[in-house]
Design brief:
Helix content: 25-40%
Number of strands: 8
Structural class: alpha/beta
Strand content: 15-25%
Strand order of the largest sheet: 1-2-3-4-5-7
Shape: globular
Radius of gyration: 18 Å
């Protein structure tokens, strides 16, 4: 049993190491905390319980062969915020840009189910490039239909907060659109269904991510976001 316990411990250590030192350093260089640093600040000390920490990608696409995706790029679980229970889904940008994978969304489905049935607030921390294209096979990608259906069902039943900590594109841009409260970080976060390269390819227009879906756009024009929070770039 000791060998099995040691193997389990090592697998957990690899999972919490996220995308590795280089990816973590890049996240910090952009003025952003890692997903696990954010959770340490959000939840009361010692209260957070993670689900699916050993998850990895679904291994359904040839381009994913040999790759590892610690926790499959998203941390999900439950803890207490000022003594009150809350559920969280937090995308990890150090793992394949926080993209939505099939295994990851199974974890997210479970977290949302428990939040709804136990009537606890649902919190998203979004720092994600959206759909993981390598796994986008067929019309039922990542169970995203369940995501949007469940957000609609949860509306008015449990509070839903979608904090934009970085980019939110495609699938992860729909999440805040259906949430109750959406803070955005000035100069760091943005959300749009398609990024500047897609806009350029389709309509030939050059536009920056900030102009397309930055915090100013969504707090003052579209109304999708509710609060603009000063970020590292705006404090310099």
């Amino acid at each position: 049993m000791k060998e099995l316990a040691d193997d389990l411990r090592a697998r957990r250590q690899r999972a919490v190491a996220m995308g590795g030192p280089e990816a973590i350093a890049k996240q910090h260089a952009e003025g952003k905390l890692t997903v696990r640093e954010r959770l340490d600040l959000l939840f009361d000390p010692g209260s957070f319980q993670e689900i699916g920490v050993l998850a990895t990608h679904a291994n359904i696409a040839p381009s994913m062969k040999g790759r590892t995706t610690p926790a499959d790029g998203v941390v999900a679980g439950f803890g207490k915020v000022d003594g009150r229970p809350a559920a969280v889904i937090a995308y990890d940008f150090t793992v394949m840009a926080g993209s939505m994978g099939r295994t990851a969304e199974v974890k997210c489905n479970r977290a949302r189910e428990i939040a709804l049935t136990k009537r606890m607030p649902m919190i998203w921390l979004i720092d994600s490039a959206g759909a993981r294209i390598q796994e986008a096979i067929g019309s039922t990608f990542a169970g995203s239909g369940l995501l949007f259906r469940e957000e609609s069902i949860m509306s008015g039943v449990v509070p839903m907060v979608a904090a934009m900590m970085g980019p939110g594109a495609a699938g992860t841009a729909y999440i805040p659109a259906l949430a109750d409260f959406v803070p955005m970080v000035k100069g760091t976060s943005h959300m749009a269904l398609g990024g500047p390269p897609l806009v350029k390819a389709v309509v030939g227009e050059d536009v920056s991510a900030e102009e397309l879906g930055g915090s100013k756009v969504h707090t003052e024009i579209s109304g999708v976001a509710d609060l603009e929070v000063a970020g590292p770039a705006s404090r310099r």
